[in-house]
Specification:
This is AttH domain-containing protein. This protein is an alpha+beta fold. It is about 15% helix and about 30% strand.
Length: about 240
């Protein structure tokens, strides 16, 4: 399985994950005293550099849409990215957990096994599991269990990120159910799971990309996905 986090510009590579210079900032920003800070928005430029189509919620969703971040390989090639819908999420907190309604859609380029940019190694192929792992870690990035203080959250994130990896690598396991949702108007099977923090799903499209999604406060059962005709529609 290939996969890799989004958002921060670190070059280290987790075991078995898709090599990328753009990693998920799973340590979501928090100010002293627990105040939540906005996540870092991306610019449209990175999305325009992608050689694959981006996916988001279809036209049935009429709420706000916003850019997040893209993930790139070591050679600068865009490999995956996310777009948001609904409320811009903060880290989950007792005061906000029942109020925020959002869904984030992750698009992952379908890549075969290939040489790394420096020619010294081999990058794993991307798959539906890649999208599932990226979505799982994305949900964690906006999650803060109420029983944890700031000093313990890093350890919790490490543990939960590894769990998300294990779950994504076993999509036929008992943690996942199947769900059929429209993609470009065509009923498409997705792997789906729920947790106390929200829901995660992942599937593939006829356009040759893998799609993952995660969210809270919006039911996954009523969603539909469609190729984004103009990414500028996500620019605030």
């Amino acid at each position: 399985m290939g996969g890799g986090p989004l958002e921060s510009d670190e070059s280290e590579e987790a075991s078995g994950q898709m090599e990328t210079t753009s990693r998920v900032d799973v340590q979501a920003p928090a100010a002293e005293g627990g105040a939540r800070l906005p996540f870092a928005r991306g610019t449209v430029d990175g999305y325009l550099k992608a050689s694959f189509p981006w996916y988001g919620l279809d036209e049935a969703f009429t709420g706000p849409r916003w850019l997040m971040q893209v993930g790139t390989a070591a050679d600068g090639v865009v490999e995956h990215g996310s777009v948001g819908h609904g409320d811009e999420p903060s880290v989950r907190h007792e005061a906000t957990e029942d109020k925020e309604r959002f869904a984030v859609v992750v698009t992952v380029a379908a890549n075969p096994v290939r040489r790394s940019a420096d020619g010294t190694g081999v990058l794993e192929a991307t798959s539906v599991s890649s999208a599932a792992w990226l979505a799982g870690v994305g949900l964690l990035s906006f999650t803060w269990p109420g029983q944890l203080d700031h000093s313990l959250r890093d350890d919790w994130l490490d543990q939960q990120t590894e769990t998300a990896w294990v779950l994504a690598d076993d999509l036929v396991g008992p943690a996942w159910s199947t769900l059929s949702l429209p993609v470009d108007g065509v009923p498409t099977p997705f792997h789906y799971r729920e947790s106390e923090f929200g829901w995660v799903l992942a599937g593939s499209t006829q356009a040759g990309v893998h799609v993952g999604a995660y969210g809270r406060g919006m039911s996954a059962y009523g969603l539909g996905f469609a190729m984004i005709k103009d990414i500028h529609g996500y620019v605030a």
